[in-house]
Write a structure and sequence with these properties.
Layout (H helix, E strand, L loop, with lengths): L3 H7 L6 H6 L4 H4 L4 H6 L5 H18 L1 H4 L2 E3 L44 E3 L3 E6 L3 H7 L2 H21 L2 E7 L2 E6 L1
InterPro entries: A/G_cyclase (IPR001054), Adenylyl/Guanylyl_Cyclase_3/4 (IPR050697), Nucleotide_cyclase (IPR029787), SAM (IPR001660), SAM/pointed_sf (IPR013761)
Pfam family, one: SAM_1
GO biological process, one term: cAMP biosynthetic process
Length: 180
C-alpha cells in the first residue's frame, strides 16, 4: 500500500509529508480532511489545497475495494458449476462528436472464457420511458404509433448498445436496461 509520503510526493506536495506523518494522517483519513484541517497541517497555499482535493477525488474510488474488486464465489459442485462473466469495466466516456450507433461485431469481445467460479459484480438497471407517449397515442393511428415506437426503440437500443448496455425488456413505451 502507498504511504502518505509517497502519495504526497506523487502529486507534488512532498513538503507537507512531515506534518501528515506527525499527525498520523493515513490515506484513509486524508480522504476526510477539510480545508480547515489542511490549513492546520500547514497547507496555507490555496493552490496546494486545490491540488490535494483533486488528487483525493481520484484516490477515493480505489480505496473502496468492495466496490472496485469483484468477490469470488466458489463453485457449488462439480456437477452444478457456476460460470463467471468477465470483470466489469467502467462505462467509457464518449465525446459528443462520436457516432452514437456502433457495430458491436467490430469491437473486441469483453467476456473472458467461463470459469468454474462465479463472482459478484455491480449492475446498473435503468428504466427509460418515452415522455408524452399517452398524448401521442390519442393523436396517431395505432399503425403509425407502432412505427414511431419501433423507431424510438431502435434508436434507444443503438445508444444503449454503444455504451455496452443490454435491453432486457421492452415494456410498452419503456425499456428496462442493464449495464455491467
Amino acid at each position: 500500500m502507498v504511504t502518505v509520503r509517497e502519495w504526497l510526493e506523487g502529486i507534488g506536495l512532498a513538503q507537507y509529508a512531515g506534518g501528515f506523518e506527525v499527525n498520523e494522517i493515513t490515506l484513509d483519513i486524508a480522504t476526510r480532511l477539510s480545508d480547515a484541517d489542511l490549513k492546520e497541517l500547514g497547507m496555507v497555499i490555496m493552490g496546494h489545497r486545490k491540488i490535494f482535493f483533486r488528487a483525493i477525488e481520484n484516490l477515493a474510488e480505489p480505496l473502496d475495494e468492495t466496490a472496485s474488486q469483484p468477490s469470488v464465489i466458489p463453485a457449488v459442485s462439480k456437477h452444478n458449476q457456476l460460470h463467471a462473466a468477465s470483470v466489469v469495466t467502467p462505462i467509457r466516456k464518449v465525446p459528443v462528436s462520436a457516432p452514437v450507433f456502433s457495430d458491436r461485431a467490430q469491437r473486441v469481445p469483453r467476456r473472458a472464457a467461463p470459469s468454474a467460479e462465479a463472482e459478484r459484480r455491480q449492475l446498473t438497471v435503468m428504466f427509460c420511458d418515452l415522455v408524452g407517449s399517452t398524448e401521442l397515442s390519442t393523436k396517431f393511428d395505432p399503425e403509425v404509433l407502432r412505427e414511431m415506437m419501433g423507431a424510438y426503440q431502435t434508436a434507444a437500443g443503438a445508444v444503449i448498445d454503444s455504451y455496452d448496455g443490454h435491453v432486457a425488456q421492452y415494456l410498452g413505451d419503456g425499456l428496462m436496461v442493464y449495464f455491467g
